[in-house]
Amino acid sequence: MGKWPTLDKMTMIEGPLDDDEYERRLKKLQNQLLDLQVEHLRAGGRVVIGIDGWDAAGKGGLIQRIVFGLEPRSTHVWRIGAPTPQEQGRHFLWRFWERVPAPANWSLFDRTWYGRVLVERIEGFCTEAEWQRAYREINEFERTLTDAGVHFIKLLVHVSEEEQKKRMLERLEKPHKRYKVGLEDFRNIAKRKQYLEAYKDMLDKTDTDCAPWHVIASDDKRHARLAGLKIIVDELSRGTKITPQELDPAVAAAAFKLWGWKPKNQT
After folding, report:
1. pLDDT the model gives residue 148
2. Domains of the chain
């Protein structure tokens, strides 16, 4: 569509952000996100948040800040890896249809159905005809769900080559972080040029009116987390009016009967 910058030419670092300012802005956004979730709980809204990006780009830290404070029973985080034996041989979207949220639920995907046009394309896990066809299939998948009322938010978390190297080496140096590093990470990093091309194709071909892409520069983790939360708040706020929940008279009567409680605006 022509609107996307070359990823490795993005501005990756913003101005300094002190601890107090970061925490203040983070808390405000998390509170806004909870208000929106409560509204969806009342209205039966469904939300899908898909997060893709490089290894060590900060996807996990972003997801942690998104779900912090949300109502846990209606919030589901799906960590997507290689298909299981049960999933293999089925259409690549089958396992994602299985994870579409029920009414009043939110689903967050740590990596998504875009694996077909990223890692599967680059590693040869599917044929060229299959990954070329997948752009249309993905757009139809997202359109079908948005027509049914599902809110889609897609985030691509981008990290520079130098910052990615720094973070990967930090993981190797700290024993409690070594579990995050595997041989496949080095295989993927070595193919950065191919991934840049695949990301460009993905953005150009699957950025739609119903499910647009948002690219986040993540060399500065704090700015990236705030940016991700703000995108979600802004997208979910569009057309949504937060209204205080009315007190059910029957509930108020039950509280009065048991405890003698009355609302403060009543005598």
Report:
1. 96
2. 7-259 (3.40.50.300)
